[in-house]
Backbone:
């Protein structure tokens, strides 16, 4: 069953097993569902198969197998022509494995019928593939919380637990006209005219916010918890280093990683970047809003 979604203006074709329940398997993707016309050519392809993975390569290099995703670990392997991403569970062999071309344009996910309804793992696989593919399309999946206000977008960065979601909520509460765009993984797009836009996505962490909207990105703030509110504008290398930790490129792939750095370099030339040391209070939200309005 072929399904189509438009995410940050990219057409994604996901082929699900016959008789699949799309609404059950991909609930957060439904706001991005797309009905293509004959002239529409998908930008990215994902084929979900209920079959055993058989493409074992003795020369595959394990790049990492230690990163933790909630209750699962993932393993990333590389062959001459492909990446293999596996979600590994200690009690038995992986039942979610994805084989992707080096640019992540073509992806095949292998699983079992019993585990097909595990939306968390399927969603994570799709995010892993999209995040890498998007880099070749002048797009960046970024770890951030994002809000819209008066036709512009604002992104709040920071390590987990810093208060990204809290600061967004403060904007919603204290800055009139604000709405949440995404609370975990919005997408930044550098358009052909040089403008920088931010988009909602099907990946919003624990917050139920899957909004198919976009707006010009006006400012980026990296948050740090602090006993008072201090806002500092940053430019050049400092701005680049502010963005880098929130990117999603594979550090093992020189091409993709360089694309991410190139995109960020363009972004900081167009978008104001700030470091915000702050308390979780109304004054912090007013400080960040008033600085650029």
Residues:
């Amino acid at each position: 069953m072929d399904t189509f979604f438009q995410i940050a203006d990219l057409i994604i074709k996901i082929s699900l097993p016959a008789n699949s329940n799309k609404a059950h398997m991909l609930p957060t993707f439904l706001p991005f569902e797309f009905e293509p016309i004959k002239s529409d050519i998908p930008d990215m392809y994902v084929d979900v198969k209920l079959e055993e993975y058989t493409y074992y390569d003795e020369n595959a290099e394990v790049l990492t197998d230690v990163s933790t995703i909630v209750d699962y670990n993932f393993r990333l392997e590389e062959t001459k022509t492909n990446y293999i991403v596996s979600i590994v569970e200690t009690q038995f062999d992986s039942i979610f494995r994805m084989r992707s071309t080096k640019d992540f344009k073509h992806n095949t996910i292998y699983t079992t019928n019993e585990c097909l309804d595990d939306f968390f793992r399927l969603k994570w696989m799709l995010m892993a593939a999209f995040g890498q593919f998007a880099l070749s399309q002048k797009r960046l999946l970024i770890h951030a919380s994002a809000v819209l206000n008066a036709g512009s977008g604002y992104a709040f960065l920071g390590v987990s637990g810093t208060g990204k979601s809290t600061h967004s909520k403060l904007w919603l509460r204290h800055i009139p006209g604000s709405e949440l765009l995404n609370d975990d993984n919005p997408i930044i797009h550098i358009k052909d005219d040089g403008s920088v836009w931010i988009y909602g996505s099907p990946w919003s962490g624990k917050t139920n916010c899957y909004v198919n909207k976009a707006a010009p990105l006006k400012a980026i703030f990296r948050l740090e918890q602090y006993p008072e509110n201090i806002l500092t504008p940053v430019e050049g290398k400092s701005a680049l280093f502010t963005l880098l930790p929130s990117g999603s490129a594979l550090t093992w792939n020189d091409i993709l990683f360089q694309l991410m750095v190139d995109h960020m370099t363009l972004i900081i030339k167009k978008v104001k970047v700030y470091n915000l040391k702050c308390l979780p209070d109304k004054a912090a939200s007013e400080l960040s809003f008033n600085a650029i309005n």
User: Anything to note?
Assistant: The mean pLDDT is 92. The chain is about 25% helix and 35% strand.
